[in-house]
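Table S2 (text version). Query chain:
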Amino acid sequence: MKLYPIETGNFKLDGGAMFGVVPKTLWSRTNPADNNNMIDMAARCLLIENGDRLTLIDNGMGNKQSEKFFGYYYQWGDDNLDDSLKKAGFHRDDITDVFLTHLHFDHCGGSIQWNKDRTGYEPAFKNAKFWSNPKHWKWATEPNRREKASFLKENILPMQESGQLHFVKHPEKDFAEANELDFGIFFANGHTEKQMIPHIQYKGKTLVFMADLLPTAGHLPLPYVMGYDTRPLLTLDEKERFLNTAADKGYYLFLEHDAHNQIITVKHTEKGVRLDQSFTFNEIFN
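Corresponding structure-token output:
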């Protein structure tokens, strides 16, 4: 097995929305805001090469939305999916599986692209299976009013229409052991219904793809919960349980949205679980 971080592009989001009820005087210490109260965000994905299988976890916003749409997110930097895949030695047609932690547009938008004559949509990974789970799929295709703006039908329905959609079964417990996708999955429900958090065993370490359970290192304190979360009190419980386990077992946390920290470890302190060390991917695995 070999892993590759895939940078699909950076953007900005409102700091208040990203930290919910926490005052700016506190969250701005770790995530400084610009004059518009916007903080730096990444859309960092992960590619897993394992034998004949090439699995991409999440894929960013994509590029098919309107200029007005992207104008809300202040994209910055030169990173994009295709260049990042090329740097790793691959093309999107090489991808065999696209695993989607959840179906918010900044995690799955790159799954679908315009067709050649721009009359409709088609999968951006023509040779891949797209992986979700039944309960989250239902949640995303019959969205509540709170999340409707994040579940864009043009990002989601073409996966099913193409025949490339597959489902991971949800176990009786909230953790599924490694299956055909080669990694375990923690199912978390605070941010959205049945968000999937991959646990990957790699070079003697457990690397956890954090998605929106822990967007940035600045979100480590338990009350630092995004305003986007549908069940913030449940997020508190899920974070506490997960972070205690991560500190106990020495997990390496791969941060999808932290523009300045790729991977972190955590430790127990008198104030709760806090940041231990921050690494680049290459510092640990190359």
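Notes on Table S2: The first strand starts at residue 2 and ends at 14. The chain has nine helices and 15 strands.
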